[in-house]
Prior knowledge:
The complex is a heterodimer.
Chain A: H1 8-13, H2 17-38, H3 47-69, H4 71-76, H5 78-95, E1 106-108, E2 111-113, H6 115-133, H7 139-158, H8 162-178, H9 183-203, H10 206-216, H11 225-239, H12 250-253, H13 265-298, H14 302-326, H15 344-366
Antiparallel strand pairs in A: 1-2
Helix pairs in contact in A: 2-3, 2-13, 3-15, 5-6, 5-7, 6-7, 6-8, 6-14, 6-15, 7-8, 8-14, 11-13, 13-14, 13-15, 14-15
Chain B: H1 2-36, H2 38-46, E1 50-55, E2 62-63, E3 69-81, H3 83-86, H4 91-101, H5 108-118, E4 126-132, H6 134-142, E5 151-159, H7 167-170, E6 173-175, H8 178-183, E7 194-196, H9 199-203, H10 205-208, E8 213-219, E9 225-232, E10 240-241, H11 246-258, E11 262-269, E12 275-281, H12 287-291, H13 295-303, H14 312-315, H15 325-334, E13 344-346, E14 349-352, E15 355-358, E16 366-368, H16 370-376, H17 379-389, H18 391-400, H19 422-429, H20 435-442, H21 452-463, E17 467-468, E18 482-483, H22 488-504, E19 518-524, E20 532-539, E21 546-553, H23 559-575
Parallel strand pairs in B: 2-10
Antiparallel strand pairs in B: 1-8, 2-3, 3-4, 3-5, 6-7, 8-9, 11-12, 11-21, 13-16, 14-15, 17-18, 19-20, 20-21
Amino acid sequence: MTETELSIRDKLIKQDKWLLVVVCILIIIGIITIFSAESGFSGRGATYARRQFVAALVSIAVFLTVITVGCEKIFEAAYFIYFLLIFLLLLTILFAPKSMGSQRWLTLAGLSIQPSEYAKIAISLGLSKYLSRNPPLTIKSYLGVFLFASPVIILVFMQPDLGSTMVFIAITLSAVFIAGAPKRYVFGTMAFFISFIPIGWQFLKEYQKNRLLVFFDPAIDPLGAGYNAIQSRIAVGSGGVWGKGYLEGMQSKLRFLPEARTDFIFSVFSEEFGFVGSLVVLSLFCFLFLRILQAGIKSRDIRSKVLVTCVCAWIWFQMFESIGMSMGLLPVTGLPLPLFSYGGSSMVSILTALGLVSSIHSSNLKFYK
Amino acid sequence: MSEMKDVIDLRLKLCRWFILFTITTLAVGLYFFQVVHTDTYVSLATRNRLRFIRFPPARGEIFDRNGAALALNETTFDIMGYPLDLMKGDILEKFAGILSKQGINTTSADLINNIKRQQMVPYRVVTVASNLAMTQMAEIVSDPDFVPQLFPMPVWRRIYPAGSFASLVTGYVGEINEQELRQSRNRGYLGGDIIGKNGVEKSYEDILRGAVGQEAIEVDARGRRVRNIETKNAVPGNRINLTLDLAAQIEAFRLLEENGHRGAIVVMDVRDGAIIVMASSPTFDNNPLAWGISSQEWNSLITNPHKPMLNRAISGTYPPASTFKALMGLAALTEQKVTPQTTFNCTGAFTVGGRPFRCWRRSGHGTMNLLAALQHSCDVYFYQVGMRLGIDTILKWTKLFGFGETSGLDMPGEVPGNVAGREWKRNRLKQPWFPGDTVNYSIGQGYLTTTPLQIALLYAAIANGGYLVTPYVVDGHSKLPVDLKLNQEYLALIQRGLFSVVRSGTGSRAGAFGLEIAGKTGTAEVRGKGDNALFVAYAPVKQPVYVVSVMIEEAGAGGGRVAAPMAGQILAYLLNK
């Protein structure tokens, strides 16, 4: 098998164009919704929508750069990237200032970044390389995978960022599952996590416990944590079939909805565009996931298969949690809705990951030449 | 290996089904809320009638060391309402009418602007009219046009009985501004809240502020209260006592204002750093600031050329002039550059680098040892001491006593002054350090600037046997003094010199009040302005309790003439009580 390196032009032409189209549509809907979320009772501004637009342009540039560089070269640096991010997370724990009770932001050379967002790419790369070399077939190598992933999981948990911790766990579990771990290990792990719930509970901060408790009964704390869940569900439910129309969502305009442009962005969208609009967004996400998985199925490389699964698990988990939360069906964790919520770090890291997926897609094609 | 790939592909395909399943679940959930039960939520949304009221707590009161009130609270009434309900119909026009009956001239447009300025969230209460007396409030509420969407609320207003006599220490409160809101995120402040803006009100904000109470109520479609959902009572702030002695403080202001001086008087307990007096003239009345003044009045306060809002005791920097000589003497003895017996001949000037540096006494002092040089404040003696020490050693000793740094006083606004050496001069003036600079330094002139409080700290250390104290104004917040490990023999010599300054030297006017005082005069030349007069002293000499530092800007005469009698009088006031 002679591998011919694709030219940059080929790489860009052969990328998964459908993937890019879906991503762009989702980002545009996101920016439109952010604009709506920030225009409120006392006037309109487009500060955040404008910033998100800039973040989107930067992210797409990053996306195309990743495709140009190609997944092959990035795989080579996988361990380096992984350990670099562990280091950054360590710096965050040690030096980042506390804001809202947790340390998530690191300022490097004047740029404020959220290392936990980038760690999601790093762990996906690290795991896919690690698993392709050490298939999780024996109990020892199976547990080794968790040991490999644990520094990131622990550091993010310490920030504390419960939502992201769960994303990392979801990524790790899906990676070992895809890499062919025997069924009994998979079921064993599930049993372990279920039995771990009461122990893990002890480690949670008071506000985290509260968020989870009010999920079961929002009336426990109608003005605190439960308030958000109730107001968000009212927003979604009152949207009806067709929605109240763009910029007409009273729940967000009157600021009954907290964190409207980040955590509860889907509620804002859903109130204004209704069930029909929500279905469109769900379908777009569904299509996106199928494209991601398709790249993996077509690939001949175990590394690539694991990587696309990690990326898919990550985006899926955040989407499922964020939309579930907006209906008050899942606890409030503060995870952004991928490609939608306001936030530059999240956007850049997701498009980097999708760039990798698209690059895997185009490198699949070269074998069929 | 290809068997492995089959397993993986099988599982990838399984993932597809899993994703389809979960997305369908979400779709079903959305269908349930947005299609099946949408009526419920539409009516919940239109009836979203949660409203929040915040009850500001009574702020902690402030007293002086003898229990005299410095800051108290007074109840007045505000008329409040919810923006969500007020913007409907002609509610605000009617209300403006009611107010004008009370002689308060306002239009509905003014009210709307006022509401817009405060409002962060439309369902949170805003103030429509404020500072009403009980009788006014009663008349407004009983007016037939008064609507139930508005309601009176008792609120606390800050009053400062000591007004301008303590305003620079107590500071004042005011409505929180946007910058402060941003800086204090997560500390529970909202627009419209009262926050300490300056002085102790600011530095002890967390003790004074108390906790805001909150009530959540449900209102009907017309904005009338239906039921209470949650009530949390306000917790009043804690009282604090200052170390300040208000009566002595007033005496200090009398001394300053008698001759219309601009300047500062600081009195501190030499044993632990308790501030007894901190007066800075001119001053300002903090009462109008706490009640809200117009931007015009505010501007005239901050653009006043005499800077009434500048606390000269801690925010004004001045050359220490001859008060610095005590430090030079101590440094020279300890560094073995002179002995008590070393003498220099003062001919009225001293030449360095071809340039003559004059003694203040043009005819010269003749032969001087350290004791006599302190007593008569001989410049030439200290010029030579300075040359022997060299600038680096002088700086080391200057920093030892806390110059060039803030002292750790529990009040905002303290400045470090400037202990400028070679590096500072190179960076700022692009010039090397000249021997002449060192000569200037030796008598506390040149690039060295200090606050009156820092000079008090130096003399407190001389008086208390070599301990650098941390000054404080709130009772119970003293810190342990730092032992500077000074040579006690040399210290005693300096103390003797300072005593002779008042007994028969340049500071004799401070000794006219029946007390044994030790101190040092200072007369600072300021380029382009009149001389500043300084005097720093402690008493009683045998067992020092108080140190006083007096600084008068552009006094028109030297420290011995202007500042020394003031220091003597304030010490006499405190010790003869």
